Sequence to fold (32 residues):
Amino acid sequence: MTEWEKFMANSQTPITPVSNVPSPRTSSPIPR
Fold:
């Protein structure tokens, strides 16, 4: 499991990939 998936699993708020960050599974690595 990636750090992003851990974050998504811990976050109860649905996040839109196109909203703030590009989709981590398709293009960019996790923004730090």
Notes: The mean pLDDT is 63. The two ends are 17 Å apart (CA to CA). Residues 3-10 form the longest helix (8 residues).
